[in-house]
Amino acid sequence: MSQPEANQQQDSVAKVSFYEKRKKIYAKGVRGFFDNWRIALVIFTQLLFYVSPWLVWNGRQAILLHLVERKFYIFGVVFWPQDVIYLAALLIVSAYALFLVTAVAGRLFCGYACPQTVYTQMFMWIENRVEGERNARIKLDKAPLDARKLRIKATKHGLWLLLSLWTGFTLVGFFTPVEELVNNVLTGNLGPWETFWIFFYGGFTYLFAGFMREQVCKYMCPYARFQSVMFDPDTLIITYDPDRGETRGARKKGVDAKAAGLGDCVDCGLCVQVCPTGIDIRNGLQYECIGCAACVDICDQVMDKVGLPRGLVRYSTESAMEKHLSKKEILAHIVRPRILLYTVILVVITGLAAWFLAHRIPLKVDIIRDRSVLAREAEDGRIENVYMLQIMNTEEQPHRYRVSVDGLPGAEIAGNPEVDAKAAGLTSFNTVVSVPPDAGKVGSNQIHFDIVAVDNPDIKVREKAAFLLPQ
């Protein structure tokens, strides 16, 4: 092979890297209809998060997932480890709600309520106030390190760290009584696990929202990867209308764009500048798009300035773009078998969980027979078995319970059949059941305990146990 041919073959070989170096994204601020919704949801979710630990209910913290006591207090309801079924129901409801929202409107949750998005928005708000808008931030980063730059950067990171630590503190306040937590911080008696989780969660908030940002959405979040399973051509997504926008390009004032072969897109690039993940929505649907609609707001503003109709970038569906469907037809396509199935399952599970929670009996009983003594004969000839009863009163008021037994002829409780149980507490006590010696067969016989609240007969539990009769 001649030297020119070898050089030509070498020049035709392209090097492809599978590792992309991150380019820092300087997202431009935008105001508009969808941005107002995003701000409202940020305020709502964060008020819910930061204020909830400070709410008081019945003289205690209204929402407290007390790991030490192994009780979850949710306003007037107390959940015990035995109520894990309700946690499973909550997770199932949340999953199907996410499936339903995704099937209808794509990554709406990501763009408006995802914690990563919410905290990134809060960090970016601080960044904009301290460093300035997009162009000012770019200029500042390119400038040499001097006293002014150091002061601005230190102020920004200091505010980020304060917000991150307060976020970690608030999270721990859901698991440790927040007043006790404040006192421990002020007195320097913070426990090791509280210290770890405050700094762990605060540190990751600082890292994810301050530095990684879109990298979390693009490379770490599994939702971005399996969302395509829940998408179909009738799912609402952020779309660019190429039939209307192409051929894109700048135009001078007074020039007929149609005559010049230009579409409505003026190729200003603002839709890319406002995107928090740095994509160009004009390239079509991309998994990096979080559906925040910042590009919709900015494009509508550009269309207003150039005197063209809004909606070049808008919420639409792949079917609508292909078939040129109207808004009414798009809404009609939303009601489809997948949506109906998700909705029915969600309504059924939510309804059942709500019904069982509303009819939940605030009493749980465990009965353990004393195995150290299988059976014993009393002075009057009756046969006795000893049981330990554990009564869980899940209401926040004390109750007095009456214990009775049946299942064998002449079975009765020896001693006082009533017991007092403290509010939202566990009461353990021993009780003796006696029967005549000929009340049943030799060996194990099934009996039942009835535990009824004296002040409320509707609070009652019936549990079975085994009674042993000797030969």
Radius of gyration: 33 Å
- Number of DSSP helices? 17
Question: What share of the residues lie within helices?
Answer: 40-55%
Q: Beta-sheet strand percentage?
A: 15-25%
- Count of distinct structural domains: 3
* Total E-strand runs: 16
**Average residue pLDDT:** 89
The poorly predicted ranges are: none
The termini sit apart by 105 Å
Your description of this structure?
There is one protein chain. The chain is α+β, with helices and mostly antiparallel strands and 471 residues long. The protein folds into 3 domains: 33-228, no CATH class; 234-325, no CATH class; 363-469, Immunoglobulin-like (Sandwich). 45% of the residues lie in helices and 19% in strands. It has helices at residues 3-11, 33-51, 84-105, 108-112, 115-131, 134-142, 147-172, 178-187, 192-212, 214-220, 223-230, 242-245, 270-273, 294-306, 318-323, 327-334, 337-358; strands at residues 56-57, 60-61, 63-66, 71-74, 77-79, 237-240, 313-316, 363-369, 376-377, 383-393, 399-406, 412-414, 418-421, 425-435, 443-453, 460-469. Strands 8, 9, 10, 12 and 14 form a 5-stranded antiparallel sheet that branches. A hairpin with a 6-residue loop joins β15 and β16 (460-469). α2 crosses α5, α3 (84-105) packs antiparallel against α17 (337-358) and α5 (115-131) packs across α9 (192-212). The longest helix is centred in the middle third of the chain and has 26 residues, at 147-172. It is elongated, with a radius of gyration of 33 Å. The model has no long low-confidence stretch (mean pLDDT 89).
